[in-house]
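Researcher: Please translate sequence to structure tokens.
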Amino acid sequence: MSLPATAPDESLSMGLFTPRYRWVTLGMFSLVFLVAFESLAVTTVMPLVSRELDGASMYALAFAAPMASGVIGMVVAGGWSDRRGPTGPLYASSIIFVLGLLICGLSPNMQVLVLGRLVQGLGGGAITVALYVVVARVYAPRLHPKIFAAFAAAWVIPSLIGPFAAGIAAQTIGWRWVFLGVVGLVALAILAVVPSLRGLSGGENPESKTAWLPLGWATLAAVAVLGMNLLADLPRVGTWLMLLSFVLVLIAVRQLFPRRTLLAGRGLPSTILVRGLAAAAFFGTEVYLPYLLMDRFDLSPAVAGLALTGAAIFWSIGSAIQGRMGESLANEHAMLIGAVLGVAALAVVWGTAALHWPAFVAIGVWALGGAGMGLVFPRQNVHMIKLSTPLNQGFNSSALAISDAMGSALALAAGGLIFAAFSGNDSFVAVFAFTTLIGLVLIILTPRTRPVAAAEPAIEASNTLEA
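Model: Translation complete:
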């Protein structure tokens, strides 16, 4: 049984696992789960891969590559979804993702593995955008908080079992099966989604006919992101090249966002912007928190990792709470409450570094930060869909995903530069002060996500330059 091209009447559905939605929910959850598992599992086995393939010099590039190519995939999937619907982009992105897995799993050297990671990121970024559009077209609006809560849960389980499972696989059957073992599972997940994709059409947006210009800007952003990760260590000129890359990223993404996004225009523009700020503040801190716990407090990796595990669990709890509350909790209020909780956690982590508070304080409070992000991220997704129309759901979904990726990438690059500029404990203090400042800006701008006229969701998806 196929679903109509627009969201069904709310009275027809009671939950995500009613017969109408059961298979599409399971299929989409599985796709998100597999993308998340792959991301976390690769982090675990990459040291072994690098050693076996003699690729230490390309270690960082193996992580930066999918982040950069993902931006291109997001743009292509967004424009394609607006023109023809999300069915084609979801199928194509899944095939590309699988192709990347195969290249990585069969790679004879590190150069080929990095190529596979580029292909894998291209497919993974496109999958994210295509799934957002499927949510907008298939599910009743009141179910949007719940399905995005399910997506958040799909990231939590891999964070708990992914590293351990990947380590066992690498030690027993070999690291290549961390890539190859996922291929068949992706195919099964797509088969579960197929019945619900039949009949989904595009938005017939005439402005989406030509995708070459956005694709060019996306490519520039991807190259600039790679440059920021590769050029900073060059003697004398590295910092200047990194700053040039940063400027190029801003120029490129300005063309890929709704108008007035970088100026924090009310409604959708600010929703896109605060997504990048939230990602920058949270993930820019989380990368260095285990480092602090191991370097300053001599904790083992397993104990330091409890901070990340706690944040993942409470992220899921926060997502479940906002999903259960549904429309009784306004999107703007959920995002603001979550931002305040997250920034409070950032401030305590900074205090742990600067004021020498006990390690358990930072470990415990980071769970609070995860709960805050569990409120923020799903409701940003819901709010973006609410402020979109079938004409621009793909473009806006792409913009939100790009903001997420670019926010994380820019924060990590800037954080690395700041960390290198200081020494000893001051390095941690400086990085956490930087991410806390980003969090304060997030709190200030979150109220601007409320549109001037709440009844007018049709923010233009044009990539026209600001006057």
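Researcher: Any highlights?
Model: DSSP finds 17 helices and no strands in the chain.
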